[in-house]
Amino acid sequence: MTILDETILPGETKTLNLEIARLHTATKLKIPVIVSRAKEDGPTVLLSAGLHGDEINGVDIVRQIVHSKINIPKKGTIICIPVINIFGFINKSREFPDGRDMNRVFPGSKNGSLAGRFAYHLIQYILPHVDYAIDFHAGGQSRFNAPQLRITPDNKELEELATIFNPPFLLYSNQISGSFRNACAKKGIKMLLFEGGKSLDINSDVSTMGVEGTKRFLKAFDMLRENFLIEKVTEKMTVITNSVWVRAKKSGLLHDQVKIGTFVEKGQVLAEISDPYGNENTLIKAPNKGYVINVNDAPIVYQGDAVFHISKNVK
Hints:
Elements lengths: L1 E2 L2 E2 L5 E6 L12 E7 L6 E6 L6 H12 L9 E5 L4 H6 L22 H13 L5 E8 L3 E9 L4 H10 L3 E4 L7 H7 L3 E9 L5 H17 L17 E10 L4 E5 L6 E2 L4 E6 L6 E5 L4 E7 L3 E2 L4 E9 L1
Parallel strand pairs: 5-6, 5-7, 7-10, 8-9, 9-11
Antiparallel strand pairs: 1-2, 3-4, 4-6, 8-10, 8-16, 11-18, 12-14, 12-17, 13-16, 14-15, 16-18
Helix pairs in contact: 1-6, 4-6
């Protein structure tokens, strides 16, 4: 296997460095791509994170996988990219310095924007080797996501893989034009998109669920070495076919009432919004029964801000 002009032999692990652009200080930036091949042939799985530079929880999941050597496979190949958007990671920012969201510019361009060039290099040099992928994300702008996988509807193979990973929630979500997931689908790569936690934060429970789910995923392909134990899961994954965002009707201080993952009834009070002078309190109520899969942790919200994400139909 040859990636980025480096040959990785069976039984070998190499850290390759993807170099695309420098900082404005002329400092070189290298994106480590950690490739581990087993002596026995098998599928190639990509584990990636940091597509949005401020979504640190995903970075921590892939970091733990590498640190624990889960990425050294029994068979096949595992490619780990803990931080894709290294510029955003340095700046604690979702976007690239050009202001673009990399998850909207795929397949990118060799001579385009900085984000587009990164997307182009992933498409050209990494994805041709990949059969399966798990891309780790977190909620943005203080919005905490319950651990969940997102897949396209009516895809039996992805549903089976999601069931193996077994997060608390599976959410059907259509492909977004220009997204990494859409680019993988066009290449025939089966991708699971993991969401959990919030930006600029590391939640240990979310990280554990991401790592354990990945172990179950690898075990299904006989890629997980025998010395790794897998935690038993007692709760069945909840499949969400539709969902709704609940938005703030007024601006003010947000006082949360319900916790992430809670099942609520229609009309149940979810939170209160108050003005800072003690004059008004506005209740936020559930528009329907369902699970709360995203909570806005911001202490201040503006009218129209998304505050809760609630499942509408489950199966």
